[in-house]
Write a structure and sequence with these properties.
This protein has 430 residues and is α/β, with parallel strands linked by helices. Helix content is 30%, strand content 23%. The protein is globular and about 70 Å long.
């Protein structure tokens, strides 16, 4: 049978509605949280038959998962074979359990995502993310590559010397990592006489950071990588809560949804769906999850849905690059922006070695933004003035700039038990 992603849009919708009905029936029978919610709001599960009927159901938010974590579990505890926690980007981490069926679903999801990015049996991928620290992503990637029939090298994050030694010895054609780490890899290669342009690497799949603008052109980070290294770049979007990945195909025109795994709504400030093509908050309903399925979960991420067929032949909708997190929106000197726009300027500045961005509330109750920057070497020009000029040219306003040592910034990037670099700190009064 042809992959559902290539079927006409009306068939995809009917397919998803059948899965939705099964999902609602499963929650009504097995979820303590959703049983309580259906009763409190007088919702008849049998009435939820079409995608439009989802509007009858209240949203699930991160705070619900934090307050009632155990009530979301739909299976006996002894069926859980793997425990995961979220990264805590929007607050305290949330625990998720996965059954064998859930891990198979994860593998299937990543298999399809890697295939979308062009991987096939015979490819070798070097994985530069952790598989420990209760992290879902690394495990999902490992399971997906196995399911695909390609090869994987589990190197983990950091340590440029080990990464280059692995590339030299095992000759992977694909790297999977946080994109900004590639710039550190290239700096290390140039400092140590490594001819990276002659390496086996042809493709980089990025996680956790954007590589494209809303018009799908490469952003500053993406351009800096491509200017130095002629490789294919693929951006992805995923989260622990939705257990699904939106991966670009070689056309680079948005992240493809897998209709059998997830339903996506895009909502406006009023909580109602916005027209296709307009930006709003991403809301997801998971399909096929056994342990902890979610219904209308507000991700906090902002993007738009694209419904036109992709040149690759897939008819399922896609998501534009993530603009930012709704809760992290900043109003700086009258200009509305999201942290990724600030990050993009800094990632695109060659002499910036590391940075951390902090948002706070000023005496007048307005948003203030300061950036602590560590530089490479000792620039012989006014770094603060140059950075402010770069910000004004790119986002029209400039934050406060403070120069700091690499160690000071590193401590801010890796506080306590953080599993991912912390580049944005929000100290604003909510």
């Amino acid at each position: 049978m042809q992959d559902i992603e290539y079927r006409p849009a009306e068939e995809i919708k009917a397919f998803q509605e059948e899965l939705l009905r099964q999902n609602i029936a499963y929650l009504a029978q097995n979820s303590p949280y959703y049983k309580r919610l259906f009763k409190a709001y007088d919702i008849d599960p049998h009435r939820i038959c079409h995608l439009e009927d989802l509007e009858l159901i209240p949203f699930t938010e991160k705070k619900d998962l934090q307050l009632f974590n155990e009530d979301f579990r739909c299976c006996p505890k002894d069926k859980i074979i793997d425990y995961i926690t979220t990264s805590g980007t929007l607050g305290d981490p949330v625990t998720f359990g996965c059954t064998e069926k859930d891990l198979q679903r994860l593998a299937y999801n990543e298999k399809k995502s890697f295939a979308c990015a062009g991987l096939r049996p015979g490819n070798i991928m070097q994985l530069m993310t952790t598989m420990d620290k209760r992290f879902m992503a690394g495990l999902a990637y490992f399971l997906g590559i196995r399911e695909l029939g390609a090869s994987i090298i589990r190197v983990g994050n950091g340590i440029p010397e080990l990464q280059w030694d692995t590339i030299r010895r095992l000759k992977p054609d694909t790297l999977m990592c946080v994109p900004s780490f590639i710039l550190h890899l290239l700096d290390y290669a140039e400092a140590h006489g490594i001819d990276y342009r002659a390496s086996s690497v042809k493709r980089i799949i990025g996680i956790g950071e954007g590589l494209r603008e809303q018009d799908f052109s490469l952003n500053l980070l993406g351009r800096r990588i491509r200017e130095r290294w002629d490789v294919e770049l693929f951006a992805t979007y995923s989260s622990t809560e939705m257990g699904a990945t939106f991966s670009e195909c070689p056309h680079g025109l948005g992240g493809h949804v897998h209709p059998e795994l997830i339903i996506v709504e895009i909502i406006g400030e009023d909580g109602l769906p916005v027209p296709d093509g307009e930006t709003g908050e991403i809301v997801v309903t998971t399909l096929g999850v056994e342990a902890m399925p979610l219904l209308r979960f507000r991700t906090g991420d902002v993007a738009a849905k694209i419904t036109e067929p992709c040149p690759c032949g897939r008819h399922a909708y896609r998501l534009t690059p993530i603009i930012g997190r709704k809760h992290n929106m900043i109003k700086l000197k009258g200009t509305t922006l999201y942290p990724p726009a600030i990050n993009d300027v800094l990632e695109g500045t060659p002499y910036v070695a590391a940075y951390v961005v902090t948002a706070s509330t000023g005496d007048a109750g307005t948003d203030e933004v300061s950036v602590k920057v560590a530089c490479k070497g000792n620039p012989d020009f006014d770094v603060v003035k140059d950075l402010k000029d770069r910000f004004r040219a790119r986002i029209r306003v400039a934050p406060q700039i403070e120069l700091a040592s690499a160690e000071e910034v590193r401590q801010a990037n890796f506080p306590g038990t953080a599993r991912k670099p912390v580049k944005f700190i929000d100290l604003r009064k909510k």
